[in-house]
Amino acid sequence: MDEFEAEILYREAGRNFATSPFRHRSLTALLRGDPELAETLRAYFDASFDVAECARRMNLHKNTVYYRVGKATRVTGLDFGNPRDSLVALLHIQEWAATPNHASGRK
Fold first, then answer.
1. What is the DSSP string of 22-77?
2. Please, what's the b/e burial string for 70-96 (b: 16 or more CB within 10 A of its CB; e: otherwise)?
3. How far apart are CA 66 and CA 62, in angstroms?
4. Domain that holds residue 76
5. Residue 104's pLDDT band (boundaries 50, 70, 90)?
6. Domains in the chain: how many in total?
7. Is this model's pTM higher than 0.85 or not?
8. Can you give the pLDDT at residue 101?
9. In this predicted structure, what is the pLDDT of residue 3?
């Protein structure tokens, strides 16, 4: 039951985010402008912040994942170790992933 409740809350947060006009400007720009980095962030979140697992899934060296996540942190100012910042990033990443042609870098 707790997992079901968590899923409901997550979906509700996503719906509220989708209807909000507010976006984290630098993260939105990064996701739109650097599809390779965006895919890495998506895989990193999907791997529950496990760099080794993210690297394995993407067939990358761990240092590449560290570099890309670090770059995202520097560019956006978000700390993915902070739950609030992670939620902000996750909502943006989910929105980016749901847009058509996201992997091709088209806007």
1. ---HHHHHHHHH-HHHHHHHHHHHHTTT-HHHHHHHHT--HHHHHHHHHHHHHHH-
2. eebeeebebebeeeebeebbbbbbbbb
3. 6
4. 2-104
5. very low
6. 1
7. no
8. 72
9. 74
d(CA 35, CA 23): 18
Instruction: Write down the residue that tokens 């409740």 correspond to.
Output: 5
106 — alpha (psi -120 to 50), left (phi > 0) or beta? beta
Q: Which amino acid is at 96?
A: W
Using CA atoms, how far residue 81 sits from 42, 77, 85, 101, in Å, is 15, 12, 8, 29
pLDDT at 8: 85
What is the distance of C-alpha 68 from the center of its chain? 12
CATH label of the domain that carries residue 78: 1.10.10.2840
Q: At 80, list the tokens.
A: 């993915």
